[in-house]
Specification:
Number of domains: 1
Structural class: mainly alpha
Radius of gyration: 19 Å
Largest sheet: none
Number of strands: 0
Distance between the termini: 29 Å
């Protein structure tokens, strides 16, 4: 994230607020970007918003940290000896539900 001086942000915020989506839209787009690429227009609009919105930038950083942590431990979740004992039926139901809700 680019750190901008506060006075510059105050000057640019009225313009940026008209060019960028709301925080609600940006958080949804940031979440979507974790699953697949956004359009060029969406990427630009989200980046512009993140420059001026510390809360949304923090949200993106937290999502990236959680994703990194889950990826690092993904293998542990798949192994039956990881301390979590699920029946084969429960595993199948979870897998089917994830596939059903996957944005493919």
């Amino acid at each position: 994230m680019v750190k901008m001086p506060k006075f510059l942000i105050k000057i640019l915020m009225p313009v940026m607020s008209r060019l960028t989506p709301t925080c609600q839209v940006v958080t949804r787009k940031v979440s979507q970007s974790m699953d697949g690429p956004l359009s060029l227009t969406d990427r630009i609009r989200v980046r512009l918003h993140l420059i001026g919105c510390e809360l949304c930038a923090r949200y993106e950083k937290q999502l990236l940290a959680m994703r990194k942590m889950l990826e690092a431990h993904a293998q542990e979740f798949d192994e039956p000896s990881a301390g979590v004992q699920l029946s084969d039926d429960a595993r199948k139901r979870i897998k089917q539900e994830l596939e059903r809700n996957s944005p493919s």
